[in-house]
Amino acid sequence: MSTAAKAARRALMWLGIILVVGYGALAAGVLTNQTTLAPGLALDLAGGRQLTLQATTTDGSEVTESDLAQAVEIIRKRVDASGVSEAEISTQGSNVIVVSLPGNPSDETIDLVRQSAQLQFRPVLEIDSPYPVTATDPSATPSASASTEPTAQETTDEAAAADEATEASPTPEPTATASASGDEPASDEAAGDSTDDTTDSTDEVSPSSLTWITDDLRAYGDALDCTDPANLGGVDLGDPEAGHVACSADGLAKIYMGPVELTGSDVETATSGPELGPTGNLTGGYQVVMDFTDEGAVVFDEISQRLITLPSPQNQFAIMLDGVIISYPVMNQRISGGTAQITGDFTSEEAATLANQLKFGALPLQLEVQSNDLVPATLGQDQLEKGLWAGLVGLILVVIYSIFQYRALGLVTVGSLFLAGLMTFLAIDLLYWAIGYRLSLAGVAGLIVAIGVTADSFIVYFERVRDELREGRSLQSSIDHAWKRARRTILASDAINLLAAVVLYLLAVGSVRGFAFTLGLTTVIDVIIVFLFTHPTLVLLSRTKFFGEGHPWSGLDPRQLGRDTIYKGRGRFVASTAPTLAERKAAAAKGES
């Protein structure tokens, strides 16, 4: 057996393994009631539940557009973290939010949607790896002082990278960094001795005391996985009078904290803008300015006096919104005026986002449920059936064209489309199981378009093979040369389709993203099928008598290739004595000269 044939058999074997393993996992999930055989359908096809929430303030102030936008963003993060996809969240008027959830969402998900966000300020005790601690985890030993955190200009700076919190588990550096204060990092010994220093003579435990990290809290923190999206929104806020552990918003750090010392009600407002240096000059960076109420300013003054005397990371305070830490800056001097500046390596958008989060948490915004109704599918089963029929008609037309144009070779197209359908169904079902992906009508449209994209790859390859045969090559040689050239064209075409799908998915909203997702998914599957089935199958078929000798129904009949050719042995074409078109043109040109 030739090397090409062996490679073709290996490719087909890998395709078989992928399908067997994938459908085996799906069958196991169905048998254990963890998923269903049918893919999940989105709101437009399956209906769901619609909640109408009215945003109100307890102090009677007006709900602004930015407040409402921030509330929508927090609800969206909660819904995404709960595993529900294809949810629709919109606003109506100046203070109404409408949340539509597909299928039959759980009571826990509904509670997350209507829960009001809360802002808390807690002192940082330890910064640990974001991963759960296991017996084999090299980051199992937490470090209370291993982070080298940035400092603040006049007040505070955004906390440094979570990977500096533990050398054993490096992680990417977060967005915000800051200039160094010039202070040397505290040693582990200093951090360990700080427990006694933070407990005063009256036996009142300081909020910055490491004794707040109880055995129960340590066990809870060890099990916490900050790489899980479910822990990055709408999670437990913890007892305000006890220690707590939570994840940073970027999922790069796990932070142990003391009890709550300030809440959103102690914040007057927050703004963002260009950062000013000590002399009033622009530094080129951006900052967030946070103004406290009169009562909050007094408490924050006391906090700042305590934190500046402590080693890292106990000289930091965590700002927690909706159970997730949005910032954990360093305190580097006493703040007695009630105004704090958070500086760091912010972009304009990042500084504005943090300011909006602080303002939203400071606003006593409540979400009152006005209605909680089951809603029918907006398009329904009828539209889904029509979409599927459209896809079926398109598929039949492609099959008819392939058989008419390529005879038996067209069956390779049919087999490729069939396998592409199996892989697409498997991928969508597994995505529904893994991340709750739901198929919308726009997604169905993406699948229908994919039929043409997939067929186009086969046509490019087959026509290239026939072009090589017209040049007088043997069938096996034609396949080899055609594949080298055709695969570049196929990869270029699919790369453009994938790029368009990614851009559309990132920039679009609503159901258009469903179309982009399925288009990108089927484009990837097209590449897999062409490389693991279409080409290997053609290689093996070329070694059969039916295709190798150019049977009239094989699609490789020389009389159908547009040139007079004759056979000479199995799988070999040789040119006849008649001049080729190129030769005739050359002769004509020579005669004219």
Structure write-up:
The chain has 593 residues and is α+β, with helices and mostly antiparallel strands. It has three domains: 3-34 and 377-575, Up-down Bundle (Multidrug efflux transporter AcrB transmembrane fold), CATH 1.20.1640; 43-113 and 370-375, Alpha-Beta Plaits (2-Layer Sandwich), CATH 3.30.70.3400; 118-366, no CATH class. The protein is built from 15 helices and 17 strands. It has helices at 3-31, 43-46, 65-81, 107-114, 188-197, 215-223, 294-307, 348-362, 380-406, 410-435, 441-470, 475-507, 511-541, 545-548, 581-592; strands at residues 48-57, 88-92, 96-102, 119-128, 156-157, 244-247, 254-257, 262-263, 267-276, 282-292, 317-321, 324-327, 330-331, 339-344, 365-375, 565-567, 573-575. Strands 4, 6, 7, 8, 11 and 12 form a six-stranded antiparallel β-sheet that branches. Strands 9-10-14-5-13 form a five-stranded mixed β-sheet. Strands 2-3-1-15 form a four-stranded antiparallel β-sheet. Helix 9 packs parallel to helix 11 and helix 11 (441-470) packs antiparallel against helix 12 (475-507). The two termini are 52 Å apart. Residues 135-202 and 564-577 have low confidence and may be disordered.
Can you count the beta strands? 17
Mean pLDDT: 78
> What are the low-pLDDT stretches, counting only 5+ consecutive residues below 50?
135-202, 564-577
Query: Termini separation (Å)?
Result: 52 Å
Main beta-sheet annotation: 6 strands, antiparallel
Specify the structural class: alpha+beta
* Computed Rg: 32 Å
User: How many distinct helices?
Assistant: 15
**Domains, number:** 3
General form: elongated
Taken as a percent bin, the fraction of beta residues is 15-25%
Could you estimate the helical fraction of the residues in percent?
A: 40-55%
